[in-house]
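Standup notes
- DV: blocked on the single-chain target, sequence here:
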Amino acid sequence: MSSTAQRPGGPLTGPAGGRGPRRPTLEEVAALAGVGRGTVSRVINGSPRVSERTRAAVEQAVAELGYVPNRAARTLVTSRTDAIALVVPETETRLFSEPYFSDIISGVCAELTETDMQLLLVLVRNQRERERLFAYLRAQRVDGVLLVAVHCDDPLPAVLAELRIPVVLAGRRGDQEPLSYVAADNAGGAKVAVRHLLQRGREKIATITGPLDMDAARARLAGYRDALAEAGRDEREELVALADFTEEGGRAAMRELLDRVPDLDAVFCASDVLAAGALQVLRAAGRRVPEEVALIGFDDSIVARHTDPALTSVRQPIEEMGRMMARLLLDEIAEPGRRNRQLVVPTELVVRDSA
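- DV (later): unblocked, structure below
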């Protein structure tokens, strides 16, 4: 193509008739194609909301002018950015203190190693950052999104569906989740943990939950209740303490439980981090683990192997789940419109000294 390709208004020259060609603008592409600037932007970003005739006119103008957007030239043809976003709607404090997140990230990175994909880690801590992310996504700057720590009221999944951006969730928002996800068998894992406590003769089994606006926390609470019902035990609400998935949350909930039911003899916690906090409070209260109070966590993270006593925990293969999420997302990017897939990964109880 000649460096003096014509456009409305004359040849493309540098400033003040400078020595080299200058870059054509989006407005010049729009004028040559006979469309608006926004239409050109939609074509370049791969939006389906453009007729084939209009798309062809814009692509012809792009080729004639030699217009290249900020992304690589290949992206113009494929509508690909070779980037995916891993979005965590949590604070950096929780991101770096909770082994779950580092294991998910490790799995995702391992799966992407042999691809050309770049991974963008995005923390969403407040409404301002959420709006900034929405604007970034609307600009079609990533090919897909992995969403971790999904809360029921999070608006991001709906925005992604509206924008037709491929997305895979770590977990789900509820039983009717329409999007692709990878989740552990949370209810089944909790049920096995509480059965273990019942089989060892524990009578007053408490639980510390995660935040109940997350399906994982609700499912683990449901598994606790199912195991009690299966054993013919009446549920006692005073044995259920609500918390978030933090160590401080575990400490506060354990204090609450001891105040309500001082003679409890077992606690099932919805995460290892919660269990670590609970263990500190039990030790401070002079309650021996496991002799007086048996304790079980969930995740089988590095935390479980470094408490004293070592923590019995429900293992979910978190790193492998990260790999599975990345594989699902790569498939959806490669085959737009393919049917969403939903995978539930089995769990197992790892028995250690705390129970």
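- Follow-up: The chain has three domains: 6-78, 83-184+319-345, 186-316.
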